[in-house]
Amino acid sequence: MEIKIGLAKTAKYANEYCGDSCDLAERPHGGISAIIADGQGNGLAAHHTSNWVVSKAVSLINDGARDGAVARAVHDYLYAMKDRKVSCTLTVVSADLETETVVISRNSNCPTIVVTPDYETVYDDEVEPIGVHRHMKPRMYELPLTPGMLVVSYTDGIAHAGRKRSGRLADFEKIMDYVRKNTADDVDFIARSILEYALALDDNKAADDMTVVVLGVAEGREGAPKIEELKAIYPVG
Question: N or C: which end of the chain has fewer CB within 10 A?
């Protein structure tokens, strides 16, 4: 099997700094995690918050902490550092080769979508962000690694796209169509398509920071060399 991850994000229109942050962490016993965080507000302050949260989560995963413990520890740090006054959403999507499962940790008001050849699941139960409420618990889900699986998560700039322009939110079924009609080999395309759809609803002037992460479990090629790849595009100016 091959684990593939696509990430796409953009800042709120006319903001130099994106209040969302995302990163990848290689798991010490095999596998990879994608982490996305949305700091309270927009601009540089939100960017600092989300970037700090993601950096802490990556460090803890690298040290071998389990995903639920990662969310709790990062919450405790933010809760203490910002004196309960700053919130941040946090989602960790992991392909854990030690347990041969996909693990999802949610502290976000946005759904996480799972589509496989056999079933579809949307995790959208209510959960608190990190940093504000003392007794915070992440929502945890664990599913077997399945070839053809796609896991999609995003921040509220995607979910709320269109609200300020037309008063109508992004069509969730349209987002689902991008997932259903593509495969685990198309993670970059899916992430970019969902982002571009949300941007179009805002007339290409994003009303909020937007981030999409897509994890796919592809079949892989039998006997092929095990080559890890990473691609990044960072716009300037």
Answer: C
What is the distance between the alpha carbons of residues 202 and 49, in angstroms, rounded to a whole number?
Answer: 25
Instruction: Tell me which amino acid residue 126 is.
Output: E
- What's the rounded Cα separation, in Å, for the pair 172 and 95? 25
Cα–Cα distance measured from residue 146 to residue 130, given in angstroms and rounded to the nearest whole number: 30
Q: Specify the pTM.
A: 0.95
Per-residue pLDDT reduced to its tens digit, 53-76: 999 999 999 999 999 999 999 999
User: Is the model's pLDDT at 194 over the cut of 90?
Assistant: yes
- Tell me how far CA of residue 224 lies from CA of 95, 126, 151, 228, in angstroms: 20, 43, 25, 12
Half-sphere exposure of 232 (CA within 13 A, CB side): 6
Domain 2-218: assigned CATH number: 3.60.40.10
Domain layout of the chain by residue ranges: 2-218
Q: Residue 3: beta bridge partners?
A: 217
| Contact assessment for residue 53 and residue 130, using Cβ atoms and an 8 Å cutoff | yes
